[in-house]
Structures are given as structure tokens and as C-alpha cells.
Amino acid sequence: MEFDWSKDETEFRSALKDFLSSELPEGFDAFDMPEHDAKEFSKTFAVKLAERGWLTPAWPKAYGGLDQSPWQSLILSEEMVAHGEPRFGQYMCVNWVGPALILAGTDEQKEYHLKRISRGDVMWCQGFSEPGAGSDLASLRTRAIWDGKDYVINGEKIWTSYAGVADFCFLLARTDGEAHKHRGISIFLVPTDAPGLTIRNIPSLFFDGAFNQCTFENVRAPASWMLGPENGGWPIIRKLLVNERVGVARYRRAARSLERAAKIAKAEGLFDDPTVLEALGRARAACEAARVLVYRVIDERAKGRYPDLTAYVYRVATIRAERAVYEAELHIEGLAGMAEGSVAAKQFGHAVTAGVATGTLEMQLNLIARDIVGGVGA
Ligand SMILES: Cc1cc2nc3c(=O)[nH]c(=O)nc-3n(C[C@H](O)[C@H](O)[C@H](O)COP(=O)(O)OP(=O)(O)OC[C@H]3O[C@@H](n4cnc5c(N)ncnc54)[C@H](O)[C@@H]3O)c2cc1C
User: What residue's CA is closest to ligand 1, atom 27?
Assistant: First the structure.
């Protein structure tokens, strides 16, 4: 078993680090910016990445990529996250919207959308969750009914991150109300300025634009907006949700946050306190465990598989890492850690939402119990 990085990978990471350190101020975090500023910043930044072939390196050359391996994407994700994710919401386009289009798009859809994504001048949002469909996503009720000319979409999506600044929505809607719930779902690529689509921001403690509610009222979608076959959306998103679950190197961002807390602990002489050392050690070990587990997922993906089971295990580890980091930081900062602007308060948002976004902790545990411990998987 070979655990080491290749020469090319090491050089890639090092060039990326140099570039990011020279372009971004110390402590940069795109999620600290107002949403519209973050979008504009990310567009300028993504163009610089695209010029170097660093926006979509693992995509096929035909679609604006460099045909590199999923390991290159992982390195990219780790370094972007460690430097405050200057791509802002564009990471979603790179991680799974583009790959979904590559997997299932028509030639026209690929030509139109993939070029824009790989140039870095477009933002997408994910219209999956609904007020009554989160963990049980397949019970979604947004309807798209063919009227002989267009699909007519009606329904409600919620918690849609970046919708307020997105150009397109990757929408799941039910096109067959009679079929088994997993079999009646289709994917639509909907421009966010489509008549009848209203987007309302939901204020949150997390980051500006983290949550929105999207209401579809008789939105007319031509057949050319459908991705993949009618009623065939579920198998496509099942494959791509793995990319979403592992696409953000949360353990790396959490480790960076922990380093800030450690500096505070050192400055305040807390390294003599064994409880502080224990909390820091525990948190760092949790980050490292998550890192190693995601490498297993990437290894499977590099072999051409869609690794569901290992992705669940990684996801649990990364949620635990986010929480362990928050606990250590709160321990170090004490009461000050409850105040806005503290290291712990910022980590709180990540620690809480990690266990909800892209599927809750409880759902991941259920899947591990059923599919791994229960004997279906390895
Ligand atoms: C930061 C963030 C960003 C998000 N961005 C998006 C986005 O861009 N697009 C989008 O579509 N959605 C987004 N979401 C929504 C997210 O996918 C859902 O919140 C998530 O799937 C949970 O669904 P729910 O909120 O409806 O909770 P529910 O499914 O109602 O769950 C409520 C509670 O019940 C538990 N529960 C439910 N079913 C079971 C079960 N069978 N066994 C055990 N426990 C169970 C859950 O674990 C949870 O604790 C985002 C969420 C967050 C936090």
C-alpha cells in the first residue's frame, strides 16, 4: 500500500499554496463577506484559477478540465478550504453540478453549462430540500407537469444555499405522481430569473446567504432544461451526492480553526493545563481520522467507483471532528467563546450545520448500521 503523494501531487499542492498565500490576506474567509461581494470576489478569483487549469483539473479536457485524477480535486479542496474557500459557492459547480452534467447532459447542455462553469463565471444552487422533504428527500412534492409544450413547475424549496446570488438552480421535481417515490423524480436546470420563481432569504446565524426559500409558481420549463431521462433523476443524484458529501474538506478548515485556538491557548499560558492539552489533542486526532477516511473514498473514486458506504463513514468522522474542534475552542476561550467574533463562536456554525447539511448525522448512522454493520456492505 502506497500512502505517499506523487511528485506531481506534491508540486501541485506547493504551487497552489504559494499562489493562495500571495493572493489572499492572512485569515481570509469568503464566508465573512456579504453574499454579493463574495460572489463577485469568487468570480474574479475563479477566473484566475481557471487560467492556471486549477478550477476543474479533474474534468475531462473536452469540457475544460485537465483529465487529472480525483486526488488533484482533493488537494484543491484541502488547500481552498484551508485558505478561506475563495471560490465561495462555486465549489459546488466543480464538485458535483459539472460532474452531473458530464454524466447525464445532452451535447447542448454540456456545451452551454460546462464552458461557463470551467471559466468560473457562473454560480449554481441546489433545489433539493422542501418543507416536508429533507432526510426523506425522495418524498419531495414539487411538481413538474408536461402541458404539451413545457413542464409547468409548482412547489417550494427550502434551505437553498446561495440561491440569492445563483444564476441557475439544479432542481429536483416530481414528474410522475403515481410511480414509486424514487422513480418519479426528474432533474431540471432552471435559470434563477425564470418567471414565476421567487427567492426569499432566510436570516441565519451561519453566513450571509446560507439559507433561502424558493417558490415555484407556474414556472415554465422547456424540455431542454431537463437533465437525464424523465423520471430518471434519482440514480443520477445518488451517484453525485457522494461528491457532495466529501467535496468540502471540512476537517482541513476545522484543523485551521483549531490552530487559531491553540495560538490563543499558548499566548494565555494554557498549555500547562492538561484539560486544554487533552481537548486540543482529541480535536486534532478527530480531524486526522476524517482526513484519512476521506482518502479511502477518493481512492475508490480514482478507481472509477461511486463509493457510498465509505462516504457515510467519512461523513460521520468529519462531523465528529467539527464538534471536537468546537468543544476544544470553547474550553480554551471560556465565556469569551460565546461572544460573536470569537474563534469558538465561528466554529459553532460549522459544528452545528455539519450534522445537518447533505444529510443529517442520524441518517448517516442509520445507513452505516443498515448497509455496513447489517452486512450488505463491506
Ligand atoms: C448549512 C446548510 C446548508 C444547506 N443547503 C441546502 C441546499 O443548498 N439545498 C438543499 O436542498 N438543502 C440544503 N440544506 C438542507 C439539508 O439538506 C436538510 O436540512 C437535511 O437534509 C435535513 O432535512 P430537514 O431539515 O428537513 O430535517 P428532517 O429530515 O426533518 O430531520 C429532523 C431531525 O429528525 C431526524 N430524523 C429524520 N429522519 C430520521 C430517521 N429516519 N432516523 C433517525 N432520525 C431521523 C434527523 O436526523 C434530524 O435530527 C442545507 C442545510 C444546512 C444546515
Answer: 134
